Model the fold of this input.
Amino acid sequence: MTNVLLIGNGAREHAIAKAVLRSSEDSRLFAYMKSNNPGISELCEDIQIGSYSNIDEIKAFAQSIVPDFVVIGPEDPLNNGVADALEEIGIPSIGPKKELARLETSKSFTRLIMQKYGIEGNPKFKVFESVDGIKEFLEELEGIVIKPDGLTGGKGVRVQGDHFDTKGEALQYCIEVLETHPTVVIEDKLDGEEFSLQCFTDGVNVIDTPPCQDHKRAYVDDKGPNTGGMGSYSGADHLLPFMKEEHLKVAHDITVKVAKALKEETGELYKGVMYGGFIITKQGVKLIEYNARMGDPEAMNVLSIMKSDFVEMCRAIVNGKLDEYNIEFDNLATVCKYAVPEGYPTNPVKNEKVDVSEVAQDTEIFYASVDKKEDGLYMSGSRAIAFVGKGIDIEEAQVKAENAVCSVKGKVFHREDIGTKELIQKRIDHMKRILG
Ligand code: GLY
Done:
């Protein structure tokens, strides 16, 4: 019997929970969640609701279960040192320790480590601890991206053209950032097509899942405010329609080198997920940022088609034997679409009922920000429910995901264009224009 403790309460963790229970090993699942995800809790032997910063409570819950390992889903518990605390009591985690999680939590850490170890993939950038020299560096850049150092819930990064226009505004934002953060990273804005590459690693060996493309903007045609991600797709050939095998290889090689550099720099093995947000530009593949966890929604794409055993993979990560594990995926395309509350992300309706009883059986459903009450599911304000369609191509998967999300009843909306032929063609045309 394998006992697995899952930390996290989103659709990503619902996908992880399902992957654990698909294992050929006889597994029992437990979850520690910030709020009760009804999809996860119905799969669990036992759950505890609590804060991701309550390390003592997490440790006590883990000690009561004695799990073979803990899977840490979101970034907050990683940043709070949950993996470190569990290691102290002899419980291994799929998720890096706090120092290594700086890969996600400190944008300067990652840029500087790549620079120090001569790893390609950085854009032109500089890290500033004070305003000295910022004005001069801004003058050197064609387009500007400003990243506060530290977790910002996805809301701290500002991009010229999207969030501000002039260099004066950029300088002003840097000054504001430095009032609340120790450092700010300023980078050249990159133009190209983005992809997410989620890799599992035992600190030495790095294995890829199929690349995905996420859609951050709330509305059709990439309009509207940024969100946690409205949906994503992956290709049946485990590439994306605008990318070549060589692009994937570059991203993989960067990740292998970064894992090695992390070991050299910290003396610790990074065990968990290295999810790189990459961009294919005229100058080659560049790293936008790493996350120390699976993507949401991208976890739903790849875990829905993962053929090999997730629990076996976690054991291989814990034991440093990932080289002996053969990760396999179905040769199917996936499209994931989120139903989100009306008004999301700026002014979402809350406590509104959402009904999925008429969703067809040919899609997978992943619960996110919903509460279960006696008379059904209620939305709590963030992304509510994700639907994954699978198919022989992206179009087939898209039709299934779209039909599913359209049959949700309630005050919700979604992005109709994710995975459609028209949007995919736009991505291909954009890539062609960029690469010339
Ligand atoms: N897909 C965006 C994220 O997980 O951060």
Notes: The radius of gyration is 21 Å. The pocket of glycine is lined by residues 214, 229, 291, 295-296, 298 (CB under 6 Å). Residues 18 and 43 are 8 Å apart (CA to CA). DSSP finds 14 helices and 25 strands in the chain.
